[in-house]
Structures are given as C-alpha cells and as structure tokens.
Amino acid sequence: MLSKARVLEIRKVSSNCYFLLLEEARIARESLPGQFLHIRIGESLTPFLRRPFSIAGTSPENGTLKILFQVMGEGTRILSMVQKEDRLDCLGPLGSGFSTQKAHNTSVLLAGGIGAAPLMFLSEALLREQKKVIFYYGASSLEQIIPVRSFFPSEAEVYLATEDGSAGYRGFVTEAFQEGLNNGLKPAEIFACGPKPMLQKLAEKNRDWKFPMQISLEERMACGIGACQGCAVTVQEKGETRCGLVCRDGPVFNWDEVVW
After folding, report:
1. pLDDT bucket at 231, cuts 50 / 70 / 90
2. Which residue among 34, 125, 131, 226 sits deepest, i.e. has the most Cβ atoms within 10 Å of its Cβ?
C-alpha cells in the first residue's frame, strides 16, 4: 500500500488552501470517494508523523489524483512548498468510503472549509449514477472560501454560505440548508464533511429530519491504520457504545453512529 506519487501540479487556490495533483496509477485506480491518503511530508524526521488528506478526485485513465489541503501547521506548510516532479511517500488509499443508494435521486452534499475535498470526489460518482447533486458549502468569509465552483462538476448545483455574509447566504451552512428545506428542497440522501460542530448540528437536526445521512470525520492521525489508537471516537450500535477509530472504522460513519 506504500507508493511514491509524483507531483504534477501544486497551486494556491485561496488564502490558506492548496491544490495538489499527483500521479500514481494504483492509487488512482483503487481509490473510492471518502477514502484518504497518509502522506509523509519530507525525507527528514521533521515532521516525524505522516498527515492524512482526503482524496478529492481521481482520473484512473490518466493515473492521477487530486488533493486539497489547508495550511494548518508546520507539516502542511512544508507540503505547500513541494515542487513539480517531487515524489511524495503515500500510504493508501485508507479508510471507508461513502455508500450510495441507487433508489435515491437527489443527493445533498454539505461541507465546511476543507471538508469540501471528499465531497468533490463523491459528486463525480453520484453524477455518473444519474443523480441530481446539490452542494452547500460554508466558510467564515469570502477570503476563506475554496473556489468550489471551479472544482465541482458543472452539473452540480452549488450554494455558498459565509458567516460574515461576504459571499452567498449570511450565516452557517447548516442554516442555508435549513432555508432550502423550508423552500421545498427534498433530499433523498445527505453526505457531509466539515468541522465537528457542523456535523454535530446536522446529527441533532436529523433526529427530526430522518434523512439517510453519512458524515466524514476530520481527525488528527498518527499511524492511519488503527495501530496507535490516536484517532479514537465513541460510536454506538444496537444501543451499545464502543471505541471506534476514524482511520479504520471511518472516516465515513452513519449520522447516528457517532456519540458527540
């Protein structure tokens, strides 16, 4: 599962977000929407640990895959400085992917911040299944918005929300989605990825909505394969709680599995 991916392109797409195009045929062929790569940032011991990155799309015919990432600390700062033709040590694809229900026709995707990345990949798969895709994307301000309209397929309907009202709906993305429901939107299934408060709010609301909904958790990881137990999350099934691991049991969970 270890591979050396070649950097084909890296560019800044917002104030602290970068797009990375990699070439690695096996990963491009095997990856599913919702899975991630665990990337070693450099050859030195700094940073020592790999970093997890959602796969934002693949082109199996070209052997390429897309990554979107935010500069959050030293590791991602170093990653933002890689050059074309550099090689990145990648472990993956890892984790569970999204599952879709063929009987459902309208899929609503909700993301906050860098949570848009796995949903970009998912949107391509849903459109191949002839589904209608509606995407709600939220950020704190216009400056923080990833240009999702340029990354998402043109067939997807895209709605923006910013907390300060500098772009799209003024408020949280969950509120923009609620307004859509109030105006007659009838989603058949929901997929979401973003900050924990956003996902928790959706889970609370879905106790009343009762939509089929899957969420992808963002979590710091050390090993990425379930050995270190560093990405533990409390989950429940059949009325009993247990310790789950985001890297191995997730990152995709059903909305009612996670104990907030």
Report:
1. confident
2. 34
Token pair 């491009």: residue: 28
φ, ψ at 101 (rounded to 5°) = -110, 115
Residue 25 and residue 28: Cα distance in Å, rounded? 5
Backbone φ and ψ for 23, nearest 5 degrees, come out as -115, 115
Is the peptide bond between 197 and the residue preceding it cis, with omega within 30 degrees of 0?
A: no
pLDDT digits (tens, 9 = 90+) for 82-118: 999 999 999 999 999 999 877 678 999 999 999 999 9
CA-closest candidate to residue 63, choices 92, 100, 26, 88: 26
Predicted pLDDT at 77: 92
Tell me which DSSP letter residue 45 carries: S
C-alpha 109/C-alpha 190 separation (Å) is 6
Please, which residues have CB within 8 angstroms of residue 130's CB and are 6 or more apart in sequence? Answer: none
Phi, psi (degrees; rounded to nearest 5) at 16: -140, 25
For 143, other C-beta atoms within 10 Å of its C-beta total 13
DSSP 165: S
Q: What DSSP designation does 113 have? A: G
Q: Are 41 and 75 in contact (CB under 8 A)?
A: yes
User: 51 and 38 in contact (C-beta within 8 Å)?
Assistant: yes
E strand intervals along 81-152:
87-94, 106-112, 132-139
Reading the block at residue 7, the tokens are 């950097």
pTM (two decimals): 0.92
Residues in the chain: 260
